[in-house]
Amino acid sequence: MELERSRVTQRAMERAMLGVSLRDQIRNEGIRRRTRVTDIAQRVAKLKWQWAGHIARRTDGRWGSTVLEWQPHAGKRSVG
C-alpha cells in the first residue's frame, strides 16, 4: 500500500518535470523513458538489500548478526 502511494507520487513528479498532464494520455513507460529515473520500488529493494549486507558484515557484537544466526530451541512449551 505504502509503496504504491510512493509510485503514484513519483509518477506525478515526473509528469510535472516534463510539463505533461494526465489529459495528454502519455503512458508511464514513455514518461519513465524520457526522464530516465529509476522506479521507486526498485530503488527501495536495492537499498534494503544493501542495508542487509551491511548488517550481515558487522563484527562488533551487536544484535544484528545474532538475530541472523539464531536457532530456536527444539524443546516443547509448557501447558498454560
The CA-CA distance between the termini, in Å, is: 38 Å
**Sequence stretches where pLDDT stays below 50 over 5 or more residues:** none
H/E series, N to C? HHHH
Structural class: mainly alpha
Strand tally, please?
0
What form results from the Cα inertia axes?
Answer: elongated
**Tally of DSSP helical segments:** 4
**Helix content percent band:** 55-70%
Largest sheet: none
Mean pLDDT: 86
Estimated radius of gyration: 22 Å
Number of structural units classed as domains? 1
Strand content: under 5%
Protein described:
With 80 residues, this protein is mainly α. The protein has one domain. The chain is 62% helix and 0% strand. The protein has helices at residues 2-18, 28-35, 40-57, 63-69. Helix 1 packs across helix 2 (28-35). The mean pLDDT is 86.
Give a summary of the structure in a few sentences.
It is built from four helices and no strands. It has helices spanning 2-18, 28-35, 40-57, 63-69. The chain starts with a helix and ends in an 11-residue tail after the last helix.
